[in-house]
Amino acid sequence: MTSTPYVFTTQKLCKTYGTGESVVHALRDVDIKIPQGELIVLLGASGSGKSTFLNILGGLDSATSGTASFLDHALTAMNEHALTQYRRQHVGFVFQFYNLMPSLTAYENVELVTEIAANPFTPDEALSLVGLEHRLHHYPSQLSGGEQQRVAIARAIAKKPSVLFCDEPTGALDSNTGRAVLRVLQDINEQLNTTVIIITHATATAEMADRVIHFLDGTIKQVIVNKNKKSAENIVW
């Protein structure tokens, strides 16, 4: 039986902002290994370091010291061009606010990504994966908040990323709509074997994760492997 490879590995990962007495330690000596294909939830209060951690793994920010690797690629050794290629080829992002182009239809919003990806889903395929095959030609103003977030997810997965980073993806949604969006993320993880990493303040979301990483004051306080994870629609908010 072969072991599951680690999609991310960090060693003594640190990030500071400012200097002298005003220095802020966003991350302090973070050591973690994240198995490929899992659904991971990052929990912690604002300022605990989870967003900084996600941004470094996503190639959006750089570390001050320490190392972070994606499979056998050293992220912390990459220059800007290499990080751009990494994001384009391997990473999808979903944020709290949908960032859709209001003048484009759902189909056209997703098409923006498929035009620059090497081997993408078609916009129709990506939107079908999130249950919006009947809303292809609707504009964002004609869609509910949950539907707009699903378009954003379709756009993120259209290029078939290895990893999907989600920063508070249900933060602007009510609980019922939030469950539906989380179910989509869970389906993507299970059907496409995409590693999904979700930042959230909603502790109930941890019930659907394979692994829960708790951040506190820039460090990892606790890692919990969830042996009895729930389906997203069964989460009690």
Topology:
Blueprint: E1 6-17, E2 24-35, E3 39-43, H1 50-57, E4 65-70, E5 73-74, H2 80-90, E6 91-95, H3 106-114, H4 123-129, H5 145-157, E7 163-167, H6 175-192, E8 195-199, E9 211-216, E10 219-225
Helix pairs in contact: 3-4, 3-5, 4-5, 5-6
Structure overview:
The chain is of the alpha/beta class. It has one domain (6-234): Rossmann fold, CATH 3.40.50. 28% of the residues lie in helices and 27% in strands. The chain contains 6 helices and 10 strands; from the N terminus they run E-E-E-H-E-E-H-E-H-H-H-E-H-E-E-E. Strands 6-7-8-3-9-10 form a 6-stranded mixed beta sheet, sandwiched between helices. A 4-stranded antiparallel beta sheet has the order 2-1-4-5, with helices on one face. Helix 3 (106-114) packs across helix 4 (123-129). The radius of gyration is 18 Å and the shape is globular. The termini are far apart.
Q: Ends: how far apart? A: 38 Å
Number of extended strands:
10
* CATH domain class: Alpha Beta
- What is the H level of CATH, i.e. the homologous superfamily? P-loop containing nucleotide triphosphate hydrolases
Going across the biggest sheet, name each strand in turn. Answer: 6-7-8-3-9-10
Number of separate helices:
6
Order of helices and strands: EEEHEEHEHHHEHEEE
Shape: globular
Task: Sketch the major β-sheet.
Answer: 6 strands, mixed
Give the CATH topology. Rossmann fold
Number of domains: 1
Radius of gyration: 18 Å
Helicity, as a percent range: 25-40%
Q: Please state the second-level CATH architecture.
A: 3-Layer(aba) Sandwich
In brief:
With 237 residues, the protein is of the alpha/beta class. The chain has helices at 50-57, 80-90, 106-114, 123-129, 145-157, 175-192, and strands at 6-17, 24-35, 39-43, 65-70, 73-74, 91-95, 163-167, 195-199, 211-216, 219-225. The radius of gyration is 18 Å and the shape is globular.
